[in-house]
Amino acid sequence: MKSLLALCVVWTVAVVSGTEEQKLNNCNEVRAAYSSKGFNVNDVPSKGVNGVPLKVCPQGYSCCTVEMEEKLSQQSHTEIKAPVSKLSTSLQSTFKQRHDHFDKFFRELLKNAEISLDSMFVKTYGMMYVQNSALFKNFFQSLTQYYVSGSAAVNLDSMLSEFWADLLERMFQLVNVQYEFSDTYMDCVSRHTEELQPFGDVPRKLRIQLTRSFIAARTFVRGLALMPEVANKVSTVSASPSCVRAAMKMLYCPYCSGQVALKPCQNYCLNVMRGCLANQADLDTEWNNFLDAMHSLAERLEGPFNFESVMDPIDVKISDAIMNMQENSMQVSQKVFQGCGTPKISAGFRSKRSVKESTFTSRFRPYSPEARPTTAAGTSLDRLTIEVKKKLKHAKKFWSTLPETVCVSEGIAAGDECWNGTAKSRYESDVIGSGLANQISNPDVDVDITKPDIVIRSQIAVLKEMTSRLKAAHSGVDITAESDDDGSGDESGSGCDGPNCDMYFSVPPTSDKERGGKAAGGSEVAGSPRVNPVQSNNSAGVTSRGSMALALCGLALALLASRLR
Asked: Residues 6 or more apart from 68 whose CB is under 8 A from it?
């Protein structure tokens, strides 16, 4: 009985083996498919051979050899990397273009603002602007440098304070041409720019607007630049040996049984690719947080931190500040004289006077919106942000969905008539989750979950840091710069040692009552620029607009006299 049973077993094995051998009595289809990959057709046996030495594919009669397995493993590595690289390259290209568009737009806005201011100030203020144009040129150069390099290159707060202080020095001398001022005296004047508020509220408002919009713009552009950088570095991560082995088994083991047209089951593909891309999937959390922060900052750029709405009319805002100084010039001068001392009369001021009013009193007229220069590519910030928000939304979950994207290609079978890793049949294993931790139960790829990829981890840290910067920029804060007290602190070195220094440099009068020309005794102030500056609200000596006009006439006289000399 035992002998009969043994004979049956031997006969069954022989029949099965004979069937396999008969099935693989030629490997012509395999030879053609193998050759189409660029390999030497002579590597493929003409008919099935003993597959016992194979390391990856099922053993038994086979159209594969160990040498073929090695070459097909390399091919597998290339083929699983190709679709991922294509998706990554597309992502890089998309956001590289968006970065270039935004960067070009912001830079051109800066340049156009400088050109617009120069053109209109030449027309409005003539030689007085031309002789001081370097101040404005340096102002725009500093803004551009801050946009490019941030607070490491330019302290925006300090730069703006210096700009207004320098502008005050120049204007103060222009409206007081009858006096001689030493460098020490002018240092005293510039130290008290904020206290004097000669330009009204324009510097404070412009500082807030410029700070918020520039921080938002440059941080957003840096975020756009970071996306291709991260994608490029992640693309350098190599597939593990176990991943390559699993990919070879999925893609090419059907060749060994002569089934070159048999496609992998979709769920089988998902498990293999989730194992291969486990580390990349772990990027998703910080990637999505980063994209959310980018989206929120884009909305800020459309609204209160709109770079375009700040830069486009900046010439008008600076001109308004200059007009404020003109209107308050006499009050400001008297406060300076009281705090810094009375200067000497200039000897050249006694030369012949002109009766023509200086063009410095001309009111600035900006371009109409239709006449303003066209910005980058004829677009607007609103259009750019609408487009980029769509791209940002589409990029969500990019890394965790790579397996799904790869496994819907033509080379993958969605039904049950597919390659499951061992035969043409339904894939029975459950599809495991994404990410490194879930790969402990991956049935197709051996993944060491205790060894996360260093490159991936470093990019997670980079994304996390950038997200913090984006969130800070959303609040108008540059976290790379030292925080300050919002400029509200007292400045040191007033140039006055007396107990009444604070009152010497109080805010200049702005109401009609304060600007009225009545002295304490009821008489009209007679045009002399010398007025007692320390008074109560109803005290005497506040200069009339006629006095200002007379002083400005003196400016024209001085300029004419200097040219005659």
From this structure: 34, 39, 43, 44, 255
